[in-house]
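Example 3.2
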Amino acid sequence: MKVEIIIYIYGAICISMIGFNIVYNLMLRRRDALFDKRTEKMRQGIRRQFQLIQKGEKTEKNHKKFLMKKLKRINYLIAYDNALQMEMKDQKAEVLEKYFSQIESVILFLAVRYSKKDKMEAGYFAFFLSEYAVNRKREMDSLLGLLLIYVKKDNLYCRVNGLKALYHLGDVENVITALKMQDDDRIYINQKILTEGLLTFQGNHDDLIHGLWKEFNRFTDHTKLAILNYIRFKTGDYKEEIYGIMTDEKADKELRLSAIRYFGKYVYPPALKWLLDFVNDHEPSHWEYVNVAVSSLSRYEGEEVIRALKGAIKSPNWYIRYSAAQGLEAHRLNYSELFDIINGEDRYAREMMTYRLEAKMLQETGGDNS
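Structure, written as tokens:
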């Protein structure tokens, strides 16, 4: 009897789950239908505004009123976002620029409203701004100030998208202010995300780098690293300044490594002595310095450089050997110049150099072994 009761209970649970899934799927379909309906209505409205702009007319007041009324709700904002993606595909840049310029009042109104909403909704609006509604040819001072509010929020999604919108606006002063705000350590933003964001800056990169360097010592090491990597990708005009970081033994390890990488991209004769000193450091705990310095030597000439690379390829550390082999390969040495390695007693150095040479030969021949 007890077994039968358990079976009946189990059957009832299964039927309940099936019923729940049916109802849930019906709700999802209804929601999808409503979303599609909203999106289509938004598309028609946007399309009409584009057509008016193409004729030299302005957007309708009713369109702006509609946006102010509806986009206060996140589900309508998402539908509008989706509609914009569809309608912008085949549209000319001038039309888009005029459209966003003419709905600036709507954007400012929404920016105020969403700055007071919960973190996720505010973050989505910041994302929306960074993707579409930023007039990149004229500054909107009010919007710039509002975006700084988004960067202050204790939410990673909101901060990253707020920064992204500021990068797209291209205002140097506000980007620097925003970076200082995110540097308060309440919300951790990976330095790679910060570097990639700075690279998308729509303003003058030279001005931004100059401004960041003036404020460099006010940032934490975490943000300094992002700035150094950004500078490395954009300019070789800061050799003397970055040389000071590389040679400062009290500086953070990651900052010094970034500085060494900088001199692997931009040749700076005074840096060569330090690079060689790093390579010749046999302290096992310093292997990262050695590895990065070895990689950087591929751009420098001279017998001392070749000698250092040949010494590094005999390192017990696989990464250092690999970097040294790449460096020797980059110097385009012939077989006779590498004879002491290929026919040497160090098996690991011999195998690494042989591997690199064979890989290079396969690459040059397109992998054809016939």
